[in-house]
Specification:
Number of helices: 11
Shape: globular
Structural class: alpha+beta
Order of helices and strands: HHEEEEHEHHEEEEEEEEHEHHEHHH
Bound molecules: zinc ion
Number of strands: 15
Radius of gyration: 22 Å
Strand order of the largest sheet: 8-9-10-11-14-15
Strand content: 15-25%
């Protein structure tokens, strides 16, 4: 029975849904704002003060004690004389050495732990150019020690992110050449304002291109949006979505199992995710690294790269409207995914 003057049941439900969404949106907005403020304070302390440096040293010591051989077992990949060597550092970070074995030159990407990078700087790598990166010391804390030890070290990165010992600031589309290594910087703001990802061009060595994605993109996940909006992050994700399916993804963290668990909550029917999860669980049972995946694989299960999918829009948003403007925008969906991911507990 419906009383006169009361909205019809359908309208009533729609009204409640709208109210819930507004409340959820407001809560999300407040959380996001307070998270950003906290991040900015922590970021300044961490990157610009001795307190931050001491904290980083303590993190380093703890991780070395807890994982004397690194948090994961990694395998190098060799492509016609170009070797990519993932180095597990801290509790879940990856640094990378990219080595042109013929020229005896190496580039270190995200050298968080100078000792870990130094130990692996063998295999004929004589010179070092450093791809120091973005976010504070969990990605670039090794710059100081490596720069002091190797006077010819060059430290590349964004001038916007307070990278320690930066010698060569990079902009969007700048290319760093080291032997046969051609590495293009792509501006991908969102996690931080100056966030860069690095694309190693496969053409000079006739192998697959490699994307070193830092805190932008992980296996089945993406970084938090600390300095930017959902639109900014979406545009950064679209930048890497434009790369080829065969591009290998080398992320900045080992988050695969948790991320795929979350992807299963928002897209339970996704078989590609299910298959990848089974493989990842086998890898992690023996503490093996899960990188690299490919961008083609990521397109098939990474929800943060699938905001164009109708199934995801219908599951999380109001669904597509009669026109593009009336439906749930991809940026709104990305924001909702981020909110759900931040509150998701995998276990
Ligand atoms: Zn990180």
């Amino acid at each position: 029975m419906v009383w006169a003057g009361w909205p019809a049941p359908g309208l009533w439900a729609a009204g409640c849904g709208l109210l819930c969404r507004v409340r959820r949106g407001l809560r999300g907005l407040l959380m996001t704002r307070s998270q950003r403020l906290l991040f900015r304070i922590g970021y300044s302390l961490y990157t610009r003060t001795w307190l931050g440096y001491l904290f980083y040293r303590q993190q380093l010591r703890r991780a070395r004690n807890r994982y004397p051989k690194g948090h994961s077992k990694t395998q190098p990949r060799l492509f016609n004389g170009v070797k990519v060597l993932p180095i597990p550092v801290l509790s879940d970070n990856y640094s990378y050495l990219i080595i042109d074995t013929q020229a005896g030159l190496a580039v270190a990407v995200d050298p968080s732990d100078p000792r870990a990078v130094q130990v692996r700087r063998t295999q004929g790598a004589l010179g070092v150019a450093l791809g120091g990166r973005l976010l504070p010391l969990d990605h670039s804390g090794g710059n100081r020690d490596l720069s002091r030890r190797h006077r010819d070290c060059r430290v590349y990165g964004s001038p916007q992110d307070g990278i320690p010992y930066l010698t060569h600031p990079l902009c969007h589309q700048d290319v760093v050449s080291v032997g046969r290594l051609q590495i293009r910087a792509l501006a991908t703001p969102g996690h931080t304002q100056g966030h860069l990802v690095y694309l190693l061009d496969g053409e000079p060595y006739k192998g697959p291109s490699c994307l070193f994605s830092g805190d932008l993109l992980f296996l089945s996940g993406c970084g938090r949006t600390f300095e930017g909006t959902a639109e900014t992050m979406l545009s950064s994700l679209d930048t890497v979505l434009g790369l080829g399916d065969d591009t290998l993804l080398w992320p900045g963290h080992e988050y695969a199992e948790e991320n795929l668990g979350f992807a299963g909550v928002v897209e339970p029917e996704n078989l590609a995710r299910e298959r990848k999860m089974q493989w990842v669980q086998r890898q992690r049972m023996e503490r093996r690294s899960t990188c690299p995946s490919t961008l083609g694989e990521e397109r098939s299960y990474n929800p943060f790269l699938r905001t164009h999918c109708l199934a995801l829009q219908e599951a999380l948003g109001p669904g597509p409207g009669p026109t593009a403007d009336e439906g749930c925008s991809r940026a709104q969906l990305l924001e909702e995914l981020r909110r759900l991911k931040d509150t998701h507990k995998s276990k």
